[in-house]
């Protein structure tokens, strides 16, 4: 790396933070079953401890996303949870309502044709907004399993209108510093018509909801070969990109560690963000979050892998020469324009990552340091004992 490249990469890393998910540290599974890990978190205290450990090693994961039904007990003071998070060196991040687990959501939540069910879902979201205000969270992150499985099963337009009304009502409850993120997914669990199936639907619904509603892009929630960076560029240009859920996938859905299948895709996404910032003279405010549940890899190791990969790809994308790229684009010089991206992607940013970590008094290799500490072994021993004492059958709910 040249001195200029080293400086650009380190400056990019200074402003790049990533949120870890509480559910990523717990036992999770597929629709077919679960394979348990002794070191998996039992409760929110364990999840916050694991997230705090990841932040201590990486220095860029100061917040932890929470799921309301999985992480907050009925009647629990949210401020007590916030205090517990601070004791572990982190803060509570995005609040995720659960709009798919209750039996009443068989036919949907916000899209349901039963007004009573929609009211139930809205009240849960109102409660989630209140929790967010109490813990100082900026984001309410919304994913819906709503949809239909058979032609004629429901009115597509009526379900859209139900979503518009519900999201507009929810937006009115947001605090002045809160942002509502609307996620989309082409299919699963709805296989005929998912109610929010793509970025355009999420964009329309967010625009109609109000100015503090944005689109959340999950990097695994797209059809094969879809151009995700083009979606990102459009949303940036419309000031409607609110955040990301990081993961990777081979076929459908997600939950593989970021960059494990296609690191160049994640690089291209980051490039569009850096290029936008170069054009506009400001970096857009984007919530970068991980959304992964690992059933085979150790939970903490997989999280660290994703964080380290995200940092490397973000730093690489910062190395693209934007002035040279604009000149090549102006001349329709396809070869040189592409080579500028390829050269940045091929650059070894290890010196920048190591320099940044040393400057921030962090271990040069977070994964090796995690293994050296013996944290996972100690957690496995303590949590196995605690499960026996509590009489827990390992597993329980999804997270």
Compute the CA-based radius of gyration: 21 Å
Count every beta strand, where a strand is a DSSP E run of 2 or more residues: 10
Dominant shape: globular
Alpha plus pi helix count: 15
Q: Would you identify the regions where 5 or more consecutive residues have pLDDT less than 50?
A: none
H-E string? HEHEHHEHEEHEEHEHEHEHHHHHH
User: Between the first and last Cα atoms, what is the distance in angstroms?
Assistant: 42 Å
Biggest β-sheet description: 5 strands, parallel
Helix content: 40-55%
Topology, please?
Elements lengths: L2 H12 L5 E2 L22 H15 L4 E5 H4 L6 H10 L3 E6 L18 H21 L3 E4 L4 E2 L7 H16 L7 E5 L9 E2 L4 H11 L3 E6 L9 H10 L3 E6 L16 H18 L6 E4 L8 H19 L4 H9 L3 H13 L3 H10 L6 H8 L1 H16 L9
Parallel strand pairs: 1-2, 2-3, 4-6, 6-8, 8-9, 9-10
Antiparallel strand pairs: 5-7
Give structural notes.
Helix content is 48%, strand content 11%. By secondary structure, the chain is of the alpha/beta class. The longest helix is centred in the first third of the chain and has 21 residues, at 115-135. It is globular.
């Amino acid at each position: 790396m040249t001195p200029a490249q080293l400086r650009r990469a380190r400056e990019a890393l200074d402003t790049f933070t990533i949120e870890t998910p509480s559910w990523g540290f717990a036992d999770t599974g597929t629709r077919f079953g679960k394979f348990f890990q002794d070191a998996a978190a039992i409760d929110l205290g364990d999840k916050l401890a694991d997230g705090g450990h990841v932040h201590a090693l990486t220095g860029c994961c100061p917040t932890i996303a929470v799921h309301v039904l999985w992480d907050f007990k009925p009647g629990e003071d949210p401020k007590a949870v916030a205090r517990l998070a601070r004791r572990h060196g982190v803060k509570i991040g995005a609040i995720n309502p659960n709009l798919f687990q209750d039996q009443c959501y068989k036919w949907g939540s916000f899209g349901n044709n039963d007004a009573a069910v929609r009211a139930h879902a809205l009240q849960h979201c109102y409660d989630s907004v209140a929790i967010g205000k109490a813990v100082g969270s900026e984001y309410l992150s919304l994913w819906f399993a709503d949809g239909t499985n058979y032609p004629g099963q429901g009115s597509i337009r009526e379900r859209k209108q139900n979503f518009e009304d519900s999201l507009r009502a929810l937006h009115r409850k947001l605090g002045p510093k809160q942002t509502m993120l609307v996620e989309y997914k082409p299919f699963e669990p709805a296989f005929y018509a998912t109610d929010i199936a793509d970025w355009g639907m999420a964009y329309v619904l967010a625009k109609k909801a109000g100015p503090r509603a944005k689109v959340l892009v999950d990097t695994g929630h797209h059809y094969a070969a879809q151009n995700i960076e083009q979606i990102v560029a459009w949303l940036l240009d419309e000031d409607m990109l609110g955040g990301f859920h990081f993961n990777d996938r081979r076929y459908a859905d997600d939950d593989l560690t970021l960059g494990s299948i296609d690191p160049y895709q994640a690089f291209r996404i980051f490039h569009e963000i850096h290029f936008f910032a170069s054009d506009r003279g400001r970096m857009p405010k984007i919530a970068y979050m991980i959304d992964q549940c690992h059933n085979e890899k150790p939970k903490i190791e997989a999280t660290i892998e994703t964080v380290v990969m995200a940092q490397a790809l973000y730093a690489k994308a910062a190395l693209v020469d934007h002035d040279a790229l604009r000149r090549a684009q102006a001349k329709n010089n396809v070869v040189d324009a592409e080579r500028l991206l390829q050269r940045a992607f091929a650059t070894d940013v290890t010196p920048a990552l190591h320099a940044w970590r040393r400057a921030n008094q962090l271990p040069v290799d977070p994964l090796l340091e995690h293994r050296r500490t013996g944290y996972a072994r100690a957690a496995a021993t303590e949590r196995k004992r605690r499960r026996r004492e509590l009489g827990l059958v390992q597993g329980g709910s999804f997270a």
